[in-house]
Design a protein that fits this description.
alpha+beta, Beta-lactamase, five-stranded antiparallel sheet, three-stranded antiparallel sheet, 12 strands, globular
């Protein structure tokens, strides 16, 4: 065969081999693409409809409150269940007596004798004591909180301030600071208005809820006296005293732990309650700046709403 013919044949064979190799390479790439896990796959779209969860009823939504400020405070969790101007600083009237007794707990033992001074005996009504009568602190505190006695509160404040060697206002300020009650201060121990423009004590509903809870925790016997229709004690001189509770709704509140009323011209009607909403689950309710009568309807409405809240219903 002609040498040139052989060369052309060899060239043709090389071209065919190269074409075959290219074809095999392309086929391999195609197979790799088709069977690779990264290759796009056909997916189906599933439409999922999620049923809306049932709304939790708001038991406090329709509660009629005449008070300027109010709170429902969970003393176990620290949660505010209901609030109306709960941080507003308002006159406390006789709710100041809660601060006075709390301050005394840190300085006086239950048996510490407290004598009614001439100044305390001249306090505005309600008052029942005479100058010179002496009581153990715990007995005087029980009578004072139950019947909101101004002479008893004045005597407790005087004794506590003297023990601390402080003025009454400084002594009460220290008690408020110990609980971090930032909106609370008092000029006297009973909360009586100093004049037509200045109250004897000021605080917020939030502060007073925590104060009431602290008093129940630290002095359950004293606090417990305030849930009864009356309280009785005998002075160290042998004089017996029976006083009536100033809260007419104590029998309507389940598992009540503390009740304290307050009323002055500047404050209006105030009320502080602590009750157990379940097993050892105390709730504090405070009403400030209501009327003399409406403080009790306000408090009752908030108690009912609280019980409905824990029952998971809008109302009872």
């Amino acid at each position: 065969m002609d040498p040139f013919e052989l060369e052309r044949l060899a060239e043709r064979n090389r071209s065919m081999r190269e074409a075959g190799i290219a074809l095999l390479f392309a086929s391999g790439l195609l197979a790799l693409f088709l069977f690779s896990p990264f290759a796009p796959k056909q997916t189906s779209t599933v439409s999922v409809t999620v049923a809306p969860s049932a709304a939790v009823p708001d038991a406090f939504a329709q509660v009629p409150i005449q008070a300027k400020a109010a709170i429902v405070y969970d003393l176990v969790t620290g949660q505010v269940l209901f609030a109306k101007n709960a941080d507003a600083q308002l006159p406390l009237a006789s709710l100041t007596k809660l601060l006075t007794v709390y301050a005394a707990l840190n300085e006086l033992s239950p048996d510490t004798p407290i004598t009614i001074s001439a100044n305390a005996a001249r306090a505005d009504y309600p008052r029942v004591f005479s100058a010179g009568q002496t009581f153990p602190f715990s007995d005087l505190a029980r009578l004072t909180l139950t019947a909101s006695l101004n002479d008893g509160a004045a005597a407790i404040a005087e004794a506590t301030a003297a023990r601390e060697n402080l003025s009454q206002s400084d002594m009460l300020a220290g008690a408020a600071a110990s609980l971090n009650l930032s909106q609370t201060y008092a000029l006297n121990g009973n909360g009586l208005d100093v004049n037509k423009a200045i109250s004897g004590g000021y605080g917020s509903a939030y502060d007073l809820a925590r104060l009431a809870g602290a008093l129940v925790e630290q002095a359950p016997t004293i606090a417990g006296a305030t849930i009864n229709s009356s309280a009785r004690a005998v002075s160290m001189g042998g004089t017996s005293f029976t006083v009536m509770n100033t809260d007419p709704i104590i029998d309507n509140i389940p598992r009540l732990l503390l009740s304290k009323t307050g009323y002055t011209d500047l404050a209006g009607g105030n009320l502080a309650l602590v009750f157990d909403s379940g097993i050892k689950h105390p709730i504090a309710i405070v009403v400030l700046g209501s009327t003399q009568k409406a403080r009790f309807t306000d408090g009752s409405a908030l108690v009912a709403a609280t019980l409905a809240h824990f029952a998971g219903v809008s109302s009872l």
